[in-house]
Write a structure and sequence with these properties.
Blueprint lengths: L2 E8 L9 E9 L1 H17 L7 H4 L14 H21 L6 E8 H8 L7 H11 L13 E6 L3 H11 L1 E2 L2 E2 L6 E7 L5 H18 L6 H8 L4 E6 L1 H6 L7
């Protein structure tokens, strides 16, 4: 039995103006992901949209523009319905193995700690953390049981590919042998990547913005039992051993 995991990110580690970097994802068996995505797509389509992309939905542009009769209330209703779907998914099928996760790095803290401690690249820390969640899913994971999918325009896609193929001191990253593919997909046709986008965008905005206009989304996501969040602040970057570079 293998797993499929879908990812999206928010923020850019190399941008000095960027305050936080976030990677989020959802994973499960092939059967679970097919079922989950069918339900997500139905909710989005019933709202009159073809897909969810928060960079379009929140400012009401693109397919969510007022010209297409979208309003902030209509958008918020869609997002609330999707959060309710995420929160209730395990109740629909108590045996589901769907898991959501996010990792956020405080880039200001990262740059301060980097001056006195050798750290992995910020993107690598996020990748290692999120990929690590997959290895608690099966009792004895075997090589080639994990398929990873990223939005085609996602910076993390290129980072994950480099880590997957790279050897450091003769060894690949600890998770590399378990991965059978790292694929580029179009988020507009992959609901699980849209779900990852919702989490990544919301968590990053919560950390980066003083405004609390998205509190209802953030609170809803944090109450979802199947989604786990990790934030690397200065203390974590100073004390946790797995963030150091070889």
């Amino acid at each position: 039995m293998g797993l499929k995991a879908y990812f999206d990110g928010s923020g850019k580690g190399g941008d000095p103006q960027c305050k936080f970097l976030t990677l989020a994802g959802f994973s499960g068996t092939e059967e679970t992901m097919v079922s989950f995505q069918e339900g997500w797509k139905q909710i989005v389509n019933d709202s009159g949209a073809d897909y969810l992309h928060m960079a379009e939905a929140w400012p009401l542009k693109g397919q969510f523009s007022p010209d297409k009769r979208w309003t902030s209330k209509r958008r918020d209703d869609l997002v609330r319905n999707l959060i309710r779907y995420l929160a209730d998914y395990r109740h629909f099928d108590e045996t589901t193995d769907l898991l959501g996760f996010s990792c956020t790095i405080d880039l200001s803290a990262y740059r301060r700690v980097l001056s006195c401690r050798r750290l992995k690249e910020a993107e690598s820390i996020c990748v290692d953390h999120c990929f690590g969640h997959q290895f608690h899913r099966l009792p004895k994971p075997s090589p080639g049981y994990l398929s990873l999918c990223f939005d085609q325009n996602e910076d993390f896609l290129h980072k994950a590919n480099r880590i997957w193929k790279k050897r450091v001191q003769g060894q690949r990253s600890w998770w590399a042998k378990y991965v059978t593919e790292i694929a580029s997909v179009d988020m507009r046709s992959i609901p699980a990547v849209q779900a990852a986008d919702l989490v990544a965008w919301t968590v990053n905005r919560r950390h980066s913005q003083q405004s609390r206009d998205t509190d209802f989304i953030y609170i809803g996501l944090t109450l979802c039992a199947a989604i786990f969040h990790k934030t690397y602040d200065e203390t974590a970057l100073m004390t946790e051993s797995h963030v150091t570079a070889k």
